[in-house]
Amino acid sequence: MGIYLKIVLSSLFLVVVQHLARLIYTCGFHKHVYNHQPGPCKYLDGVEFGSEDIATLPDGKAFITSGLLMPSASSHYRQRYIDSGVRGQIFFFDFKSPGSGVTSLTIQGNFNTSDFHPHGIDYWLDEISGKVYIFVVNHRQKMDAVEKFEFVPSDKTLKHVQSYIDHAIHFINDVAVTGENSFYFTNFLNSRGPFWGIFEIYLMLPLGSISYFDGKYYETVEEGYLMPNGLALSQDQRYLYMATSVNGAIKVFKRQPNTGQLIFVQEVKLYTSPDNPTIDPLTGHLLVGAQPIIIKTAQTLEDPRNPSPSQVLHFEVNEGTLSKTTELYINDGSVLYSSSVASLYGNQMLIGTINHKLLHCEVRTL
Ligand SMILES: *[C@@H]1O[C@H](CO)[C@@H](O)[C@H](O)[C@H]1NC(C)=O
After folding, report:
1. Where do the H-state alpha helices sit in 61-187?
2. Nearest to 184 by CA among 246, 140, 228
3. Cβ(112)–Cβ(86) under 8 Å?
4. Fewer CB within 10 Å: C terminus or N terminus of the chain?
5. Which residue has the CA at smallest separation from atom 5 of ligand 1?
6. pLDDT at position 197 over 80
7. 318 Cβ below 6 A of ligand 1
8. C-alpha 36: how far from its chain's center?
9. Which has the closest alpha carbon to 51: 350, 345, 333, 294?
């Protein structure tokens, strides 16, 4: 073998070993979870197949997405989804009336509810009219869309207002709303199909991005991320927080209010896999639901009956930046599988999951 061939082959070998080492580390085989919770916790009845993302209004009304079916789901998973009779829905919970539990909101208007597979969620509150609009990422069978609904409090229904569909909306994950008709969203993966999706995930290709819709045009404002996940805006709307899934971080950006452009401010590495950040509407602090052992979450994503651990982290927000990280909750999977989000309101917390239940906890430790 010539010397050059040897150099080429050994370099290639090192690249492969390096990638495998990174993959194995990312999987989290070496990690272990010791349970703790901030107070008594119980399941909220009625939620059996996920509570992936939560949007909580300043008055304590919470909207929860359920029945996630990602375009990248395996055929085995799809079959289970159909066999279990799962349907995409938005649950409602009022932090001011926790005893009332959750209710599934009826959707009105010209909207195909059998092609509704909700993922990320956010709201827009019109200060003048008092109207509440709910924006939801929807993985339709043929394409992804952002659906806009108006919440009708009198009869607890969602009135479908409009669907946002565009080439810029590819395989999206979450939405952060900046106005009645403008929002950021994350393009999670580049490939919508299961095969190329898996390829992208296992090669850890950073093909994800953040885009902004200003009411007229779609524009990519950040790119080069591996599976950019949940988004949240600070209370004053001047900062945007993004969680970068797998063994990731929270990235903090300052917004240019007129153009939607983002300026990088801070990155907080988490050594866990954060999913959706939310802002506590009463304190302005940030919470994130995470999956501490991602290989276990991959198993839950293959079959929702496989347990996997859950974790909630809390960060103080000062002038937009994050400090003082506290772990509010962690569970090895004996109670809650793969938490994806948490929402704090006073001394209560909801913890949502990718495809498991919804937990309500009293918070006595913060
Ligand atoms: C609603 O969605 C289902 C599932 O994708 C599809 O089979 C059906 O044709 C759709 N109905 C209409 C009226 O578009």
Report:
1. 75-83
2. 228
3. no
4. N
5. 115
6. no
7. no
8. 23
9. 350
